[in-house]
Structures are given as C-alpha cells and as structure tokens.
Design brief:
This protein is α+β, with helices and mostly antiparallel strands. The chain has two domains: 60 residues, 434 Repressor (Amino-terminal Domain), CATH 1.10.260; 184 residues, Beta-Lactamase. It has twelve helices and five strands. A five-stranded antiparallel sheet has the order 2-1-5-4-3. β1 and β2 form a beta hairpin. 24% of the residues are buried.
Length: 263
Amino acid sequence: MTFAARLRWWRERRGLSQLGLAHTAEVSQRHLSFLEVGRTSPSREMAALDLPLRQQNALLRAAGFAPVWRESALGAPELAVVDRALDFMLDQQEPYPAFVVDRRWNLLRLNAGGQRLVAFLTDTPPAAPDPDNPTNLADALIAPDALRPLIVNWREVAIYFLRGVQADALADGTDETAALLARLLAYPGVPSLSEAPAIDEAQGPVLAIHFAKGQTSLRLFTTLATLGTPQDVTAQEIRIECFFPADAESAGIFREWAARSPT
C-alpha cells in the first residue's frame, strides 16, 4: 500500500476529517489533500502521526524513509532493562498468577503462581513458553474445548474480552490482530459483540472470572499493564496481566498452593 493510501486509510479509520488531521499535524488542509492523492511528497514529520510504533514504521517505509523504531526480540541485550522489570513484576505478584503476553495474547512468560494456575486448570504442568510455537491465551479462553467449560460466567467474560480484542484491532490496524478477532468470533457458541452482558444485582466493582473445577472455586480479576514510554516495537506491544483474588477463599487457595510447592 502506498503512503497516500495508508495515510487516507488511517485518517478514515480514526474518524478524522482532512481538516481535523491537518490541524493535528500542523499542516494545511490543502497540503494534506495533496498527500492523500500522491501529488505531494511526504516529510518524515508528516509520517510520525499518533500511530502504534509498528504502523509508524510501515508508514515511513511507504513514504520511502527508513523505519525509526527498532523491533528487538524479548531477551535481546537491547531490552535487558525491560527484561529485569518484567521479572520483578512477575516476582512481586506471587503467590498470585501473572503472565507476560504480546499484543495478540501469545504467552511469553509466566510466574510460579501462573504455572500453578495452569497446572490446576489443565492437569498438566505448563511447558516453558516456546517463541516459535506460543500458547495463545485468547484461544485458550474462547475455544470451546479449553478453559470455557471451567468458567462459570464464561459468556460475560467472553463478551468483555472480545470487545477488548476488537478495540485492539481498531487501534493497531494490523491484519494479524484482525485475523485473531475473526478466529475468536468463529468459534461455536461465541456471543455477539453487540450482546449486553448479564448484570448481577450483587455485582462488584470489576468482573471476576469464576473458575470452578471439582470442589475448588476460584474468583479472580485481572489488571493489564504496559510500558509507559516505549521506544521499541516489542516493548510497546508487551502486556503484563496480573490476576488477583476476588474473595478470601481464592486468596487462601493460592497461598496454600504456594506453601505446598517446592522452593
């Protein structure tokens, strides 16, 4: 796709008029109009709009410039400081689960609490994450033969999660995230994105995921953290999902599991 086509596509995707984008980019509407039909050569400044770093690089390449933002593998020396921060966050979350995922929910790393939760839910000790064949947590949550049978309120959880993936697809504009959303929606029994979640009269401040297996019941809610000032594509796309107990019973179960685990 040419720079002109990409620029026009992103402007329309963001719901901006030419005048609105021109004002944001501090150029004239006439200049922007010429850019969108390819009559004017773009500048590097025009390419650096408020887009994800990956898409900024794509826009720069389409304009004939070298990409600005580096994309390093997690674990590479360039991301050593990020690696240390991730390990610290995972350790601090113990005994509760924490997972590091990429933008499309591929599992990159997990703490001991996460390993214990996965082992409980799947009856299988989790293998070390494989970068070449990663476990996708989105598929695990939505597919009918994975975690779905173990989640009492799966439909409500699925609605919120799918809307989050839809927002990601709109925000990053990549074919990969759009394909992930399409794959998740294609699973049998998946609720429509327009469906309103059931509202419990005794609802809490957050929606807790209610896992039930045998005699064990776990109610957990999650937080998502990202790096605040990323200057690397990989660093921008990393997410840290931390699980917290929503009741005292769930908290006690995680403490008990941790106490029984070998040090």
